């Protein structure tokens, strides 16, 4: 099976790479063919679950503001971003039938608020551009040939026979002149992101910077019952079966770029009693400070959520990158939450004493215990459902110390949720070995890298999908122009 350009990976970066390549080839004199190989039964499964199913697909900030949210080398991203800006993405989607809306924080969503519409639009654009998307096709090996690249693949075919699904698996070889790898990272492995691109990169002589989960839940001390399951993913990865060209079976060793797991606490680990008190609470307009070894490392303002994973929401995700990296490096991590950042300490203390005076002199307070009255007063300052968690973690708080505690609610961080539910992967293929203006490998002409497989990542809020779209589109255009 031959195609002029092959894209491995049918996610955000891969589909956009195919669109960029096909559109560019259509404008050239000789034309050409573009094929996407996706190992899952359906393309873009990770997009389907992004933004809790709503898909915040980009952020319309200008470059100066957008780049401030990139957590890796923004200079490397700049050529891709300026080649396909957020406005360009919105226009491309609109041209292919998707209306969008921009909400708070400059976040763009499909007007339908359905992530599936984004996937359908990308696939429609591929079809109209003449791209062939092959699903259930897993690439096993990549070889460089005198005329480009040879890919050994396994093609799965499915059909219904007597109400049962009959599956056949056959080897197939694809060849191409130009190859784009957009296989994603390690996050949400159930969608197909299992680190294949990193292994091929190493085999082809590229450096892979240490990977770790980013935009993930941080787990406060005592939030979960145990972290005993943390080693299971490592064990599963070590026992991966890989089939080489000679079809021999061997065990893939754990690569150097794969992260440490000492502080990984799987999301499925049950909540403790304390975790149950926290779970489900959302706190808006707070200030969250991250401390590493006692030193302030990051400070953000916005909203947080406590879930069955731990501390999440926009602020939890924003600080998670530095927190996870510090935990992996054996450093001590804690957070401080200011629940009243807009109120000075003295004014807050005055308000608390006034509210306390009102509560204890209320006719309905007669016969009530101090603990009950204190919680009633606290409920006038923070959401009622959060009061029990606050009191459990601050058992010695009093009327006189409440103001200071509300402005410095401290948590030690015991660990983090891993790739099983992390939004993105930090780390990846070193961008120093990729040409920023084309995304072509500096080691192998005709080989291009795009999306999360590269060492690029950003904050939550539509930034990461934009990075995937921009790098994918530029890689596709570059590959087509070089034919």
Structure characteristics:
single chain, 483 residues, alpha+beta, FAD/NAD(P)-binding domain, 3 domains, 7-stranded mixed β-sheet, 6-stranded antiparallel β-sheet, 15 helices, 32% helix, elongated
What can you see in these coordinates?
This protein is α+β, with helices and mostly antiparallel strands and 483 residues long. It has 15 helices and 20 strands. Mean pLDDT is 93; it is low at 228-251. The relative contact order is 0.19. α1 (12-26) runs parallel beside α15. β1, α1 and β2 form a beta-alpha-beta unit. It folds into three domains: 2-212 and 426-481, FAD/NAD(P)-binding domain, CATH 3.50.50.60; 218-339, no CATH class; 345-406, no CATH class. Strands 1, 2, 6, 7, 8, 9 and 20 form a seven-stranded mixed beta sheet that branches. Strands 11-18-17-14-15-16 form a six-stranded antiparallel beta sheet. Helices cover 32% and strands 27% of the residues. It has helices at 12-26, 45-49, 63-67, 74-83, 86-95, 115-129, 196-203, 232-238, 273-278, 313-328, 345-360, 370-378, 387-393, 402-406, 463-481, and strands at residues 2-8, 34-37, 58-59, 100-103, 107-110, 132-134, 137-145, 148-161, 164-181, 208-214, 218-220, 241-243, 249-251, 282-292, 295-306, 311-312, 333-338, 409-416, 424-429, 447-449.
């Amino acid at each position: 099976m031959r195609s002029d350009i092959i894209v491995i990976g049918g996610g955000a970066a891969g589909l956009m790479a195919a669109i960029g390549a096909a559109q560019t080839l259509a404008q050239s004199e000789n034309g050409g063919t573009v094929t996407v190989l996706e190992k899952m039964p359906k393309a873009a499964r990770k997009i389907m679950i992004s933004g809790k199913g709503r898909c915040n697909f980009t952020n319309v900030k200008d470059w100066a503001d957008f780049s401030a949210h990139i957590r890796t080398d923004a200079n490397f991203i700049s050529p891709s971003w300026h080649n396909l800006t957020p406005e360009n993405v919105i226009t491309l989607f609109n041209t292919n039938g998707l209306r969008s809306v921009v909400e708070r924080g400059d976040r763009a969503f499909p007007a339908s608020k359905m992530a599936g519409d984004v996937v359908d639009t990308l696939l429609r654009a591929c079809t109209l551009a003449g791209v062939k998307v092959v699903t259930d096709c897993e690439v096993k090996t990549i070889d460089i040939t005198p005329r480009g690249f040879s890919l050994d693949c396994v093609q799965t075919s499915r059909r219904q026979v007597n109400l049962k699904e009959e599956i056949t698996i056959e080897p197939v070889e694809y060849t191409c002149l130009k190859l784009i790898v957009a296989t994603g990272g390690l996050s949400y492995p159930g969608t197909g992101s299992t680190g294949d691109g990193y292994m091929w990169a190493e085999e082809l002589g590229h450096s892979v910077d240490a990977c770790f989960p980013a935009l993930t839940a941080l787990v406060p001390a005592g939030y979960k019952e145990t972290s005993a399951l943390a080693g299971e993913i490592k064990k599963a990865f070590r026992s991966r079966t890989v089939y080489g060209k000679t079809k021999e079976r061997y065990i893939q060793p754990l690569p150097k770029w794969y992260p440490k797991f000492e502080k990984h606490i799987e999301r499925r680990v049950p909540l403790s009693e304390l975790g149950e008190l926290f779970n489900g609470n959302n706190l808006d307009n707070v200030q969250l400070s991250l401390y590493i070894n006692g030193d302030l490392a990051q400070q953000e303002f916005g909203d947080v959520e406590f879930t069955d994973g731990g501390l999440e929401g926009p602020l939890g995700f924003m600080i998670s990158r530095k927190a996870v990296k510090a935990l992996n490096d054996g450093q001590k991590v804690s957070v401080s939450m200011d629940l009243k950042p807009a109120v000075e300490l003295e004014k807050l203390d005055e308000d608390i004493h006034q509210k306390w005076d009102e509560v204890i002199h209320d006719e309905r307070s007669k016969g009530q215990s101090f603990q009950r009255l204190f919680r009633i007063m606290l409920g006038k300052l923070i959401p009622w459902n959060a009061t029990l968690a606050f009191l459990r973690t601050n058992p010695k708080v009093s009327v006189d110390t409440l103001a200071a505690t509300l402005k410095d609610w401290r948590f030690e961080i015991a660990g983090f949720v891993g790739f099983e539910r992390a939004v993105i992967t930090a780390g990846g293929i070193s961008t120093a070995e990729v040409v920023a203006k084309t995304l072509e490998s500096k080691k192998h002409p005709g080989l291009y890298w795009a999306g999360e497989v590269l060492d690029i990542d950003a904050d939550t809020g539509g930034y990461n999908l934009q990075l995937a779209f921009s790098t994918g589109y530029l890689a596709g255009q570059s590959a087509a122009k070089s034919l």
